[in-house]
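Entry 14. Structure prediction run on the chain below.
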Amino acid sequence: MYLHFDVKKRIFISVIKIYSYIYAYIYTYKVDLPIIQTIMKKCLECNGEIEGRSDKIFCSPYCKSIYHHKKNRGKEKNFYLKVDKQLKLNRQLLNHYNKAGKAVIRKEELLKVGFNPKFFTHYWKNQKGDVYLFCYEYGFLEKKEGEHVKYILVQWQDYMS
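Output returned:
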C-alpha cells in the first residue's frame, strides 16, 4: 500500500515538473506550440488560459455566462415552437368541431385527438362567472353533465370585448 502511494506521489511530482518546464519554455522563448496548447487548460468560451483551481473550465464568470447563454439559446426557441404548435392545433380542433358557432363535445373525444386545455391565448368571464378559455377566436368551457365532462365550444363574439 505504501509503495502504491509512493508511485502516485512520484507521478504527480513528475507532472508538476513537466508543467513547470513547459511554462519556462513558453515564457523564455515566447513560442506557441500545438502540444503545449493541448496540455494547458483552455477556457471553453474564449480559449484563454485558465488560472486557479484545476477543475475550472472557464477563465471568468463573463465567459461562463456567455457560454451557457449560447448553449441554452436554442432551448428557448424550441419551447416557443412547441407552445405555438400546440396553440395552433387547439385552434384547428376547436374550429373543426365547432362549425355552427356553438357546439358541445365530450372532453375525452377532444383530448384523444391531441387537444390540450392548458394551452390558450386568453379568457373571457361571463355574467354568471363561467370562464371561457380561448385559442385565438375559438373558445371552450368545461362543464360536467352527469358522469361525463363536456366542453361547450363557442366562437368569439363582439359583445365579449
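The CA atoms of residues 54 and 142 lie 59 Å apart.
Filed with the rest of this week's runs.
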